Amino acid sequence: MRDLPPTATLRAFEVATRHPTFTAAADELHVTQSAVSHQLKHLEALWGLQLFERGKSLSLTAAGAALAPIVREFIMSLEATLSDLREQKGRVRLSVSTTYSFALKWLLPRLPMLSRQHPELLVSLDTTDKVIHFSSGQADVAIRLGKGIYPGLYSEFLFGEQVFPVASPDLLQRFGTPHGPADLLHFPLLTRDGAELVPKWEAWFQQVGLAFLPLKESVRFGDTNMTVEAALLGQGVALVRSGHVENEISDGRLVRLFDVPFPSPLAYYFVCPKGIESQPHIVSFRQWLTSEALKVQQIYG
Prior knowledge:
Elements: H1 7-16, H2 22-29, H3 33-47, E1 52-53, E2 59-60, H4 62-88, E3 92-98, H5 100-107, H6 111-117, E4 121-127, E5 141-146, E6 153-167, H7 169-175, E7 191-192, H8 201-207, E8 220-221, H9 224-232, E9 238-241, H10 246-250, E10 255-256, E11 263-273, H11 280-300
Parallel strand pairs: 3-4, 3-5, 7-8
Antiparallel strand pairs: 1-2, 5-11, 6-9, 6-10, 6-11
């Protein structure tokens, strides 16, 4: 540590590595040429190394070239950290755990509204499909898809979803628009791996009163977002939950097929350890969340 010079000296070195003369470096730093020259001579004396070849223009020695990226990374990291800390000053960090698909499709598009309404909140998102253990400090609060059974935790219903088929305009142009659910038996149907969290074609066809034959699959998707993307690419009809395709339907990239009510057996819940739900910053987030969820519930019921 005895070889560590003042930050201003390191800054002078970093700037000088990017300019052909001390005068040009001094202009960027808003100091005199002699001040830059003095700082660099001091640095060379401190480290016992020649850092620059001096002539009509500056050039780094081998030692200077080796040290330049290290000093530059240090200064950039310091500036970025200071900027981040200043931004956080006076704000309350809230760590939110949710599933990747929900974060990507539902929560992220709405976060700018949260920031405008509650600038005091600094939300940190963690995405996982695994069971969360609040005791280990994984997150402060969570949003989960389930049946509302969370023993020992505070939970609050947010919204339920409808399950329905969607297709891209391109697919409908190639195969024609289906006039009824039975027509879908002649369409390529996209399927997903997974247990109860995944909408099942068998259950949907049963809901509309049709027998369902096993699909001749070429691909089975392991992720909701991949299934939606495949539908967007016109590869087939996807069976989706309403919360995952709001934007795609509103902008016309996907078309909902049939107005058949089929509520998902699962719903989204706000979950946190009992007792912290009344903390002011969590109340702010929870009230904003329930307000946004109510808008969705009014659309899809």
